[in-house]
Request: fold
Amino acid sequence: MINTPTETNLDTVQASPKMAARGVNVYYGDNHAIKDIDLNLYADEVTSLIGPSGCGKSTFLRCLNRMNDTIPICRVSGQILLEDDDIYTSGIDVVQLRARVGMVFQKPNPFPKSIYDNIAYGPRIHGLAAHRTDLDEIVTTSLEKAGLWQEVKDRLDTSGTALSGGQQQRLCIARAIAVNPEVILMDEPCSALDPIATAKIESLIDELSGRYAIIIVTHSMQQAARISRKTAFFHLGEMVEYGDTTEIFTSPKEDRTRDYITGRIG
Amino acid sequence: MNDHILSTYDDELKEVRSIVIQMGDLAANQLSEAMRALRDLDLEKAKEVRASDKDLDALEITAERAVIGVFARRAPVADDLREVVSALKMTTMIERMGDYAKNIAKRTFAISDGSLVIMPQLLDNMATEAHQMIHKVLEAYIKRSADDAIAVWESDENLDSLYNVTYRKILARMMESPEHISELTHYLMIAKNLERIGDQATNVAEQIYYAITGDNLEEARLKNDETSIELYAKK
Amino acid sequence: MTDRSKITTVNSSVPTDWKSDAMQARIGRRYRRERIFRSLGLAAVVISVLFLVFLLGNIVKNGAYGFMQTSVSLDVTFNADLLGDPSVLSAEEFTEKVRKTNMLRLIQASMRDLFPDVKGRRDTRALLRLVSTGARAQLRDMILANPSLVGNTERVELLTSDDIDQVIKGNIDITLAEANRKVKDKELSWLKTLQDDDRISLDFHSQFLTGGDSREPELAGVWGAIVGSALTLMVTLVTAFPIGLFAAVYLEEFAPKNRFTDIIEININNLAAVPSIVFGLLGLAVFLSVMGMPRSAPIVGGLTLALLTLPTVIIASRASIAAVPPSIRDAARGLGASPMQVVFHHVIPLAMPGIMTGTIIGMARALGESAPLLMIGMVAFIVDIPGSINDAATVLPVQIYLWADSPERAFVEKTSAAIMVLLFFLIAMNGVAIWLRQKFEQKW
Reply:
């Protein structure tokens, strides 16, 4: 399932990107948080965004499904394309956008409802299931895809918050999958988890990578190295370098990338 | 280059580097000692050279442990990764150089057992050239100079052509005096050893170049080994 | 100072001498300060507890007798000549006849049997005054409930007047000179006779909890005030809860953060601190004068108290809405929930225990409030139990105020007893608030 770098390059040259940033700038009031980002994000591959805290990687991630909308002082310029549509034009429905571009957060945040209702919530509000049987089907397949079905199939009516941290995070991934997204954004999904739970999430990301475009912000460079095919390094709001993960982690082109990943700057 | 935030990481990398340099010095020393033993047919010195190969082996193991330690605890990436990987490969190459020097010392015994045959002068020239290459490549390593590494890599051509000349000279002497063919074969093998030491020095230069730049020097290299072509043609 | 310099000049390479005298002295001082601080805190708690115990003890001591009333057992002959014969008369005629009969004559007859020596109008009237004026109604109700009594003689327990009651409860000092006390020697001697005859008893008095207000302490009850309070609070709850909730949701979730909303926020906080009588004036001006609503009615009282409670409800609701973790909002938004869906599917359900707790505490405050109700006329003397929110009514704290103001000695204990009833409801409401909080509190 892992292609050689040359094959990857061929793939990406041929396919058009699932999402693309074109000259994206983000301002928080007077603070220029994101500076002129151009980035292509392809379906069926995992892209990691790495960089020191406050470098703008999470801000950029949250621009991709307009989660920044709720912050009044946040202003975005430039284009962010989902396929061919600019998601920041007024004609775009944010609710639909977020169904197409799902999100998994740093801290596992299941609703304090049953496991079933956690998964069923998205399909319910978007009217994706006509009957109870359809909903059951969605819940089952989502949990199966998230690798959680075997662990919870006998207790779908227990609260999602009663699961372990790693299970909660997989529940959140299952919840995101349930609305059938095209892109999944992950904001440091493993930062609150132990290594075993982290490994399970990573293997899940690996399995999902064929079906969705996955963009993951991570503080663990090892994690970026392990799971992503493409890596983008952000520093002080700029995207310093973007390329094949192997390339970035063996021979980064930019000194700033090298200094960051080798532990020379914070 | 900036230091790492963790200064012990720097210390460990420095440790690896110093072992590599130590090994290089030892190998260069072994080469000159072996050549001196050969020139003077000094069997005591030849024995010393053979014994000192053990030190080189021990250093190689130390280097290997240090490198594995860095991998296990630091998970090096980027230039650090290239640095330790090349260091690991370089220690093997330098250890090979030591093996060639040991082999020269070993042949000194065989030559001294036979009838006295004058050592071809060109072997000395070759040894000097090889020694120079080791010296230069270590300097490139210490200075982290990609240019110096390229210079060493290019100077291998000199040693190769020197080898070609030596090869032909020894071949001619074999034809002149077939009774000394066994001693001369040893000299021929020593010439090959010296050429191989040069090759290893070139490999080390490639590793240094890779560690510094992340690019592969070898890909651009055209092998210019006329002797193999000649041998092939003679068959 | 010398100690200090000794410590600071210690070279860092030499381990600090934690056992030196200076250090030991420092530790000693630190412990001493901690002990003093703790004993001060404990003293503060003890003083507060003492005050509380004194207050409650005083109320209970005064109020316990408020639930009891003295009765006198009399052998009453239900004279058929006076009352009419239920077997001859129709039910309506009988009822009519009973209603018109002066029951005092029955009591007088039975008293005459007990005290044949008492002659003269004045003494006879004094004798009759031993029995409460409510005894007449008591007898009438008995007969109407059970017409078969007519023609028989029954031993009946009748309430004594409040003065006798007070003597029995020991609240009137009978050792004082006769001129200085309300109950005269003659009455005391009759009482003595009755006591010797084992006709006087002190029992639990259910009418206090089930009856309306009265000028006679022994007849006065709190039920009218309880119903009035309940109706008033119902109006308050129905008004303040939804308005407070929606205001809180809007301010917390939707309102833009600007100068205008800042001013609103500050003003809501200020409103919570406005003296309650000001809300009474507002209620008087708006609901009575402008809108022409009925005086003394629970609807007006409830609306006035709603104004008073609103800031509390809004502040408590906002606090518990703000306490819903942002991660839940993110999760819902990330799935494509609209702002309204986020609020109604997630935020409000999760904040509900806190909102309800805040509301109940606001209600409890409204229950204990009297000043604003005085302004809108809920201070009237109302005997009837209110039947709807438009009827004239009074509420518990106002009832307490009215009784505390009454001259009769017997109202002192009624006041305390009513306070106990009020406290019971307050504690019950706070208990419900705590229970709700614990039952529905979510753990994240």
Observations:
- Confidence is low (pLDDT under 50) at residues 1-12 of chain A.
- The radius of gyration of chain A is 18 Å.
- The longest strand of chain A covers residues 31-41.
- Residues 19-261 of chain A form a domain with the Rossmann fold fold (CATH 3.40.50.300).
